[in-house]
């Protein structure tokens, strides 16, 4: 959904514009970039805890058996389903619990080239981090999710880092080790 | 033998003519009772104990569960489910999927997020698996995507109820051989 022949569909555009309007409003509401980022993350979290069930209901995927499978699932199935793009996944730690998703294309920033000078620390797409964090928490995989690199800030690529934390209790209240 | 139980008057002893222990007094002389009181505010047991009110016709039946009772039973089942998965000789058991009795089958589907969907059906009813998955979709659409619905609270969303009803009708019509028969 969203892309036809390289251009977004009308509803895809409306979504991207709505996201932009949301960020713009938050910038009016909060002076500090950190506050806007926190707010976006919190909103994303609220979306993520609900979106996860939609994802599971629609994709009918089986339970992931490793952090690596989970990261692949997020990039190849979830991102594809909701944003129409497929980031590349790589594992960035020997411990096997840190991953990075490199976004080649990101529809949310289709109309944004770079951040204004007074908003240099803004994580424009921070909502996405919150969504991923909220979704993972609901399947008992607490994680830290942040933007490690951002093309909008002048970096070479846009990279989201996911660090899986200690495994939480599973659905039946049992703590299992990985 | 009748005795009060919670907010109802319930049969404690003496089964006959289809009236069973546990059945509640539903109506007296055609007027539905309101808990322990008759339609016009008299205490049911007092009324029935007074021979001046005879002859009297009483309707018995299984009472419909109140929301609180449903919550209690659901949380009991939730605990049994957890116990079941821990007792299981198989490692990594996913919990109780089905409970079968003479008169009904209880089907339970647990999502990866820990939500349980429970369906009670006729033992011969087929297609419950796909019904459970359909209910999951309906829940994620009309409850979760409703911004005014708070997680973990009872679902009072009109669209959810409507779509759920439709899904149940489809499953019921399908009968013992599943949808498409």
Automatic annotation (TrEMBL), chain A:
Xref: SUPFAM superfamilies: Ligand-binding domain in the NO signalling and Golgi transport (SSF111126)
GO terms for cellular component: endoplasmic reticulum; Golgi apparatus; TRAPP complex
Superkingdom of the organism of origin: Eukaryota
One of the GO BP terms on file: Golgi vesicle transport
InterPro entries: Bet3, NO_sig/Golgi_transp_ligand-bd, TRAPP_component
Subcellular location: Endoplasmic reticulum; Golgi apparatus, cis-Golgi network
Biological role stated in the UniProt entry: May play a role in vesicular transport from endoplasmic reticulum to Golgi.
Subunit comment: Homodimer. Component of the multisubunit TRAPP (transport protein particle) complex, which includes at least TRAPPC2, TRAPPC2L, TRAPPC3, TRAPPC3L, TRAPPC4, TRAPPC5, TRAPPC8, TRAPPC9, TRAPPC10, TRAPPC11 and TRAPPC12.
Identification of the protein by name: Trafficking protein particle complex subunit
Source organism (scientific name): Strix occidentalis caurina
From TrEMBL, chain B:
Record-linked Pfam families: Sybindin (PF04099)
Keyword Transit peptide: no
InterPro entries: Longin-like_dom_sf, TRAPPC
Any one GO BP annotation for this protein: endoplasmic reticulum to Golgi vesicle-mediated transport
Gene3D superfamilies cross-referenced by the UniProt entry: 2.30.42.40, 3.30.450.70
Keywords: Cell membrane, Endoplasmic reticulum, ER-Golgi transport, Golgi apparatus, Membrane, Postsynaptic cell membrane, Synapse, Transport
GO CC aspect terms: endoplasmic reticulum; Golgi membrane; postsynaptic membrane; TRAPP complex; vesicle
Membrane found in the keyword field: yes
Protein's cellular compartments: Endoplasmic reticulum; Golgi apparatus, cis-Golgi network; Golgi apparatus membrane; Postsynaptic cell membrane
Assembly behavior: Component of the multisubunit TRAPP (transport protein particle) complex, which includes at least TRAPPC2, TRAPPC2L, TRAPPC3, TRAPPC3L, TRAPPC4, TRAPPC5, TRAPPC8, TRAPPC9, TRAPPC10, TRAPPC11 and TRAPPC12. Interacts with SDC2. Part of the multisubunit transport protein particle (TRAPP) complex.
Family, as annotated: Belongs to the TRAPP small subunits family. TRAPPC4 subfamily.
Function: Core component of the TRAPP complexes which has a function of guanine nucleotide exchange factor activity for Rab1 GTPase. Plays a role in vesicular transport from endoplasmic reticulum to Golgi and autophagy. May play a role in dendrite postsynaptic membrane trafficking.
Protein name, as recorded: Trafficking protein particle complex subunit
Organism encoding this protein: Strix occidentalis caurina
